[in-house]
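Recall the central idea of this unit: under ordinary conditions, the amino acid sequence of a chain determines the structure it adopts. In this exercise we apply that idea directly, starting from the sequence alone.
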Amino acid sequence: MAITNTKNINDNLGNVSNPLIYYGLQPALLGCALLTWYLNQDSLWVYPAIILAVQIILGVIEYQQPARPEWLPPAREKIGLVLLVIIIFFYTAVVAAPFYEATLNPALSETRVLLGINIWPYEWPILFQVFLAFFLSEFIWYWFHRAEHRWLIIWRVSGHGAHHSFKNLGAINYGANHPLEYFVLLVPSAIVELLFGAGAAIGGAAILLVTQASIVHSNIPLNSGVIGWLLTTNRYHIHHHSMVIEESNTNYGCAVILWDRLFGTFSNQLTEETGIGPSEPSLFNKFIMPIREPTDSQISPQHQT
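Accordingly, the structure predicted from this sequence is:
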């Protein structure tokens, strides 16, 4: 790809055309999402309501102030992606979550009792517990995610390549994962909740994780300065979606960048092109990626040097 495209992708990420959005959107969305959960902890509707509100806010801003105008999808394509994510979420609620309810949940709870694990700081204020659960679950996910990019068998079984196959990213891409990967995505929160006994705090942590995942996939100019020392920003996560395998093997923290900084996988370099290869596979080819990857795929672990 031409150098001019590289300039567009990265310079627009730092284009402070609207300082309020550039500096304030990410912390404001995270704060409002957490506050909404805190005031409505007993409502099951708070979770889909927050997810929907975050997606609407980010989606509107993406069309009004895109970091990369060329990434804006046609209306038909956008609607198709939204419907795909909705279908995957229904699948998660009907298939993946009940599977864990019947298998993983009892196993983790019994393990906690068997090992006598009773270390969760219940005496802390609930918001402190939420942030502890948030950083701890992201620590677990960091290693899961790193393993997906390190070993071909895990890359294939989880279908992680499907998530990387999109050439143009937007906030809605946070949920565009292969159905198989949702079995992996649920594991870190389940471990924190059931093995460590986090309890109610995991609900607030989940809200922060989903909000962060939406933000870091968004096509909006956002600041990576101060907030980027602890939390992942879209500049960092877009780099993880790079088509260059050495660049894709960085910035594994989808919500927390701290672990990448500590374990030597952080990168703040330019991103020339995203995706798994020069072309984006069809929806069918995305679905069968655990069995057969596109011939032009360049970032799977089989290409490790």
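The CA atoms of residues 4 and 272 lie 9 Å apart.
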